[in-house]
């Protein structure tokens, strides 16, 4: 058998595609400075974006995955919707079933009152989190796949984990 001939242009195109695919799953822009601290988190569900904000400045934005049925506000436990409203990121969970997670204080008083009027349990146990601990893949699962949480890649979760102290407000908008 003779030497293997390598088609250099084809290899370069393949490497470029792999690089672009990886970028599609990564955060926008350069890595967040280690000293950056957000004083607010904003999530825009339609855009599938999470913004870390300090004052009036956006520190960084991330593409997110939402609940499996993301359209509309969360109404009851098990509806797989990501809530809409103003909450607090109240505690970091290093022992999560996902790669790190930060708890969202859902349900708030408005959510509880609405669920009570409907006679439904509001649900809870919602987080910003990385990928499932047993996930094997290129960066993160595509599409909306959570039970109502907000998911990012593990690398992105490391940045968010570091930049968002307990007590940071989060606003989740349609």
Short overview:
With 174 residues, the chain is of the alpha+beta class. 21% of the residues lie in helices and 25% in strands. It contains three helices and eight strands.
Commentary on this structure:
The structure is a single chain. This protein has one domain: L,D-transpeptidase catalytic domain-like. The N and C termini lie far apart (61 Å). An 8-stranded mixed sheet has the order 3-2-1-8-4-5-6-7, covered by helices on one side. It is an alpha+beta fold and 174 residues long. 30% of the residues are buried. It has 3 helices and 8 strands. It is globular. Strand 2 (49-54) and strand 3 form a beta hairpin. It has helices at 8-24, 109-118, 154-163, and strands at residues 40-44, 49-54, 57-63, 85-93, 101-104, 126-129, 150-151, 168-173.
The CATH class is: Mainly Beta
Write out the CATH superfamily name. L,D-transpeptidase catalytic domain-like
SSE ordering = HEEEEEHEEHE
How are the strands of the biggest sheet laid out side by side? 3-2-1-8-4-5-6-7
Please name the CATH topology.
L,D-transpeptidase catalytic domain-like
The biggest beta sheet is recorded as: 8 strands, mixed
CATH architecture: Beta Barrel
The N- to C-terminal Cα distance equals: 61 Å
Molecular shape: globular
Average pLDDT score: 87
Low-confidence stretches: 1-26
The value of Rg in angstroms is 19 Å
Q: List the domain count as a whole number.
A: 1
E-strand count: 8
The count of helical stretches stands at: 3
Q: Helix proportion of residues, in percent?
A: 10-25%
Share of residues in strands: 15-25%
Content-based structural category: alpha+beta
